[in-house]
Every structure is written in C-alpha cells, then in structure tokens.
Design goal:
By secondary structure, the protein is an alpha/beta fold. The protein contains 17 helices and 13 strands. The chain is elongated and about 75 Å long.
C-alpha cells in the first residue's frame, strides 16, 4: 500500500537470510511479496532497532509471548522492546502492541518507556496502542488483504488519526476499523480465540457423543449450521486443535483466575476436551487393531497442526506419535511442508518418507491428521496393493465411507459409530 517498512529482529542469521530472500517460515505467497517489496526498496531488514527508531512514525511490537509453565504469559520480550525504545527515543512515535498480550500490558509498556525517558531526563511525547492480529496461518496474506475487521485500542484522537491513515487504503475495500479502549482491544483477541476453540471442543464432544448413541456428526453439523444464529464455521469434528495461538491463549485466560479471583469454567472445559481429543486417533487405532500394536507399522499423513503451514506447535501429532512409539509401533510419516520441522522436533524416532504413497507401503494402518489438499483424492487402488492391512483412521473426516469400503478398506472416522 506504499508504506515503508523496516523489520527488526535480534536474530542476525534470520535477518541476513531475509535480506537474501530466504523466508524462515512457510506461508503461501509470502516469499514473492517479500522479494517484490525489497526490490522496490520499501521493505528493509535490520538487527538494530535504534538505527531506524527516530525515522518512523509507528513501532509495531510483534515479538513472541510464550507461555510460562503455569500457562501465564511471559512478557519479557515485549517489555524489552519497550525498554529499547525508551532508551533511544528522541521524537514522537506510537508504540503499537501487535503481540497477543493480557489486559493491562499496554500500560506496563507505557510505564517502561516512560521510566527509560525519565532516566535520560528527556521530554518526548509518545502514545501506546493495541492492534491485535487475527491472521490465520496458511492464509495470512489473504486475510490481511480482506480482513473481517481491524481492532485498535487507543487513548487519544491523535493515535486514531494515525491508525486511520495507515488503514485507509484497506478501507477502500469496506474494511471495518473498530476503535475502542486499550483493555477492550487486548481482551478482544483472547475472547475471539476462546470462542473459536469453544466451538471446536463443543463439536468434538458432540462427535464423541454421536459415536456412542449411533448418530452421525456430519449430519448433526449440517442441521446445526443451517440455523443462522449458529452458522457453519468451526463446526467440524476432528482430533483437536493446536498451533501457536489457540492453546496458548486458552491457557492464558485460565491463568487469569489467579490474578482476578474469577474462575473460567467454560474455558477450562474447552482445554480439557481438547487434550482428551488429541488421544482419539490413537484410541481408534488401538481398538481397530484389537490392542495389538507392538511391531505394527503405522503410516501418518500430516504433521502440521493445520494445512498450509509448517507449524507443529501443540499439534495432535505430538501426542499420537508419543503414544504410538511407547506402544512399540514403527511410525512412518509424510507432510508436504513440515518434514524439516518434524526432523528438528521428533528427530530420528520415526521414518521420514518422500511422498504419501511411500508412507503406506507395508503399513498396517494409515492415520490422517492434517487435511492437506494433496491427501483428499488418493489413488485408493495403489494403496490397496501396497498396504499390508487396509485400515484407515481419518482424524479430519475428509473421506467417503462408501468409496473406501468399495476398495476393501476398513474406515474409522470421528463422530460416527465404527466398531
């Protein structure tokens, strides 16, 4: 949109790679955007925030906010950025928190910056704002170019004018910028993710109930989604949610009870259901193979927590592989993008395959964990010839039972009685 952007990170290797066009994560369309804007001299990379601080109007703080052992949020990186800004600031800027942070963080940021200015005995105006991001991994660029809304927490009209000017090019496409107080903006991100995870865990619990009573969760989902008050989004049963945001944000909300003495009963249940759901694929494999897993070979399609990303954080895979290995299973895996990431996280505990079909050779069962498009229309006739045992556990409910049974497969899915 014509904005001149400098990206800052303390990781020198990452910055040098970015300058060369090497992107440290997989995101569709990102590499082309980065290269194009670098060539246009509008996108720059540095390890030195101070060198560019007094040439910009806004600093967006998008550093990590990792969970502590108890699930609370570690703000040390956010506050370190604020401290660096305060130590070197010589002109007005807006410090915009983009990271997902608990309510009250922007005030902490404000205090840290002011403390550093006071130490230097420098009188410089600045403002803080909260602008949480709602981008989905695997669709970040598409989401940014067609956002449902932009949420901005502000304390002054001056910030409102600056943020409006920044987002005005996007408003041409009827984007909605919602201005509010900063605590509400900080809470909006947590509340949004909590609602989505609640729908996921609710549907997974309904799916498990469907299996017990003989109903089909896909039919139930269609019937529910036809109600305009409910809608169809996030009503798909599966083997649990993962990623960098949902699990962390749910845990952070739960931990707020210790600070404000208010228990989050619904959110606690959401997390409990999700942790249980991560076991469901293993449990189905265990039951389908009559408890005889030792020395069996299990093929796994999909390692990332969702398609179009190499992010494996909190993915159901982590639980499933651990339990399979403990049961004495030989595990073969394939993912279109996340193989290098898996080698770092799982090391040599599993067999890494070159493609989806190599994975199922001599396999006693196939478990689908991530619904990559490449997995949607397999050559069942090929798999029929190479698998030792024609058994599939579908953790994302993407296949048609009738089609698989015509090829002789035993097919187990989520939310439908199979045994």
């Amino acid at each position: 949109m014509g904005v001149n952007v400098t990206c800052v990170d303390i990781d020198r290797e990452k910055i040098e790679n970015l300058k060369k066009g090497i992107i440290p994560l997989y995101e569709p369309g990102l590499e082309e955007r980065v290269k194009g804007n670098v060539e246009a001299n509008q996108l720059h990379f540095t390890t030195d925030l101070v060198s560019c601080l007094n040439d910009v109007e806004m600093v967006f703080c998008a550093v990590g906010t990792p969970p502590e052992e108890d699930g609370s949020v570690d703000l040390k990186y956010v506050l370190e950025v604020a401290r660096t800004v305060g130590k070197s600031l010589n002109k007005y800027i807006v410090f915009v928190t983009k990271s997902t942070v608990p309510v009250g963080t922007s005030q902490k940021v404000k205090l840290v910056i002011q403390e550093e200015l006071d130490k230097r005995d420098v009188l410089v105006e600045f403002d803080v704002a909260s602008n949480p991001e709602f981008l989905k991994e695997g669709a970040a660029i598409k989401d940014f170019m067609s956002l449902d809304r932009v949420v901005v927490g502000i304390e002054s009209e001056k910030v409102k004018e600056l943020m409006t000017r920044l987002y005005r090019p996007f408003l041409l496409n009827n984007f909605q910028v919602i201005f509010m107080d900063i605590p509400s903006a900080e809470m909006t991100k947590y509340a949004s993710n909590a609602m989505l995870t609640t729908r996921i865990s609710f549907m997974n619990e309904i799916a498990n109930l469907c299996e017990l009573v003989g109903a089909n969760v896909d039919n139930v989902r269609k019937g529910m989604g036809a109600d305009r008050r409910i809608g169809h989004h996030f009503l798909y049963a599966g083997c649990g949610y993962g990623g960098s945001c949902f699990p962390k944000d749910v845990k952070a909300l739960i931990q707020m009870r210790d600070q404000i003495n208010y228990r989050m009963y619904v959110i606690e249940a959401v997390e409990a259901v999700n942790e249980d759901q991560k076991n469901i694929v293993f449990n189905k494999l265990h039951k389908a193979l009559q408890g005889n897993l030792k020395e069996k070979t299990i093929a796994i399609w999909g390692l990332s927590f969702k398609p179009e990303t190499n992010d494996m954080r909190e993915a159901p895979l982590q639980v499933i592989i651990k339990k399979l290995l403990e049961a004495g299973v030989q595990v073969k895996v394939y993912d279109p993008i996340a193989m290098d990431e898996a080698k770092q996280q799982i090391s040599n505990k599993v067999i890494y395959c070159r493609d989806m079909y190599e994975t199922v050779i001599d396999a006693d069962a196939l478990a689908l964990l991530t619904e990559w498009k490449q997995f949607r229309l397999p050559a069942w006739s090929v798999m029929q010839r190479v698998m030792r045992n024609l058994l599939i556990v579908d953790g994302r409910n993407i296949y048609d039972r009738k089609e698989l049974e015509e090829y002789g497969f035993k097919y187990y899915r989520i939310g439908e009685r199979c045994f």
